[in-house]
Structure formats: structure tokens, C-alpha cells
Amino acid sequence: MRSSNLILLHWNNEYQHFKKNLTVGRKKGDSEAIHEVRVTIKKLRAYLKLLLIFTNKKTEDELFAKTEELFKVLGRHRDVEISLELTSQYEKKIKEKYPELKSFFEKQKEQTLLWSVKALNKYRDKELKHIGKLIAKSPGLAEDEIVIQKIASLIITSLLLAKENFAVPHKLRQELKEVYYWIKMLPEKHFLKPLEDKLHDLLDDFGYWQDHQVFITRAKHFRKDYLPGSFGEFDKLKQLQATANDTAEDLLKSGMKKTKKVMAEVSKLNKLEPA
Predict the structure, then answer these.
(1) Which of 252, 244, 250 lies closest to 219, judged by CA?
(2) Mean pLDDT, to the nearest integer, of 39-56?
(3) How does DSSP classify residue 98?
């Protein structure tokens, strides 16, 4: 039986990626590096959850608080970037121009980038080093085959209970994203591995849906609280919001439909897998 501490291996890989992009983000204020820091935090959070579930240690709030604070600050910049991207996409799709909205987002982008760089430079990774030590010192995580069995069991349980969050799509997406990261940890020949691509596909729908939710909220705020009603763009933005809402609804329906299919498949796989 192999003993390499699978969770620690994945944790260390992402931690190194985190440090690399943290350094680039601090020095250059690079938007891509800042985005990568956020993505890596999501993965680290998923691995931390495995540690907490398998060892009954402290809550995530106690171990990951400063890192979550960083994640939230960086999220403000990402939200504005997404809003700008979708504005440009809809300009091409609807064949309209929204110069006032884009100007508003551009100014927000500059400010949130400054906040992001400030947060990156303020952040210290003591939490992540501490968690890495906890994973390394947890004897219950040393045997890979046992850990893989536990991860598989957790994946099955999480997917079969996904319906409990159907009324809260944001939470559903977050939990499915964690499941996706856990499946990526499994060996290629594992019976749950075929679900990886399907989860990736449905998470694209949920991700694009969430992007639209952010965009719609910010565009509505700009139109309602800043843009003069006498400007021609005022009415155009109302139509833009309606179009974006329709797209968001379609994406959510698609994501939910695909989730139900994955739930049915994992139920079938679970029954076929020998005890």
C-alpha cells in the first residue's frame, strides 16, 4: 500500500503555484496572476475541507480566515473584469454601444486593482504553512488507498445530496467545484473518474451564470444610481439587463439539468461498484 500523503502532495503543488502568483501580483499588479491566486485559493480550500472532514480538526474559519479575506478583496477586481468582458460581448451580440457603462467599469477596474495589490502585499501565508504542517502530521492521511476510498465516498455523498442546494445555486456551484477538485485527485482508472469532464461542463454553465449575475447587479446599480435618465444609454441598459437575464436563466437551467444527470449517473455507478 502506497504511503505518500495524497492530500499533502496536492496541497504543496497548489501552495507553490500560489506563492509564485502572489509574488507576480505584488510586483506587477498583473490581473492574470491575481486571478490565479483566487483559483488556487479555491483548490486549497477544497483540500483543507478534506483535512477537516477526515481528522475532525478546527473549523475552516479558524484556519483559513486571512486567506478568505484576501480572496474576497481580489474578488472585487475579478467581478469588474467580468463585467467589462460581458459588456463587450453584448455590444457585439446586440450591436449597441455602452460607453458610459464601460467607462464606469474601467474606473472601477483601476481602483480594485490597486486594492488587490495592497491586499497581496499585506497578506502573510502563515495560515497556509500551518495547514500544510497539519496535513503532514495527520497519520490518518498517510495511506493513499484509504484516503482515496474516503474521498470517493465523500464525492458520492456530496453529489447525491446536491439537490439540497438546488434552491441556492451559488452554494451548489461552490460545492460542486469542490467535488470537481476532489475527483481530479483520483487515479485515472477510478470508477468515478468519468464524471470529471461532465462536472467541468456543468460548472462552465454555473460559472457563466454567476458571471451574469455579477454583471446584471453592477449594470443595474450603475443605471439606477449614477446614469442620468436623460441619457440615451439609460433605456439601452434596461434592454441589456433583460437580455442578460434571459441568458442567465438559460444557463442556470442548463447547469441544473446537467447536475441532475450527473446525480443519476453517480447513483448508478455507486450501485455497480462492488463493496
Answers:
(1) 244
(2) 94
(3) -
pLDDT tens-digit series, residues 150-196: 999 999 999 999 999 999 999 999 999 999 999 999 999 999 999 99
**In degrees to the nearest 10, what's the CA dihedral of 199, 205, 208, 209?**
-120
Backbone angles phi, psi at 2, to 5 degrees: -70, 145
Q: Could you give the C-alpha distances from 51 to 11, 67, 132, 157, 172, in angstroms and in order? A: 11, 17, 10, 17, 21
Residue 58, pLDDT score: 63
pTM, 2 dp: 0.93
Position 43: which residue type?
K
Cell 506563492, residue located: 19
- Number of C-beta neighbours around residue 113 at 10 A: 20
- Grid coordinates given for 138: 495527520
CA–CA distance, 100 with 191 (Å, rounded to integer): 52
Q: Residue 260 in contact with residue 202, Cβ under 8 Å? A: no
DSSP 118-141: HHHHH--THHHHHHHHHHHH-GGG
Type of residue numbered 208: Y
Distance CA 66, CA 61 (A): 9
pLDDT score at 1: 43
Contact indicator for 16, 128 with CB cutoff of 8 Å = no
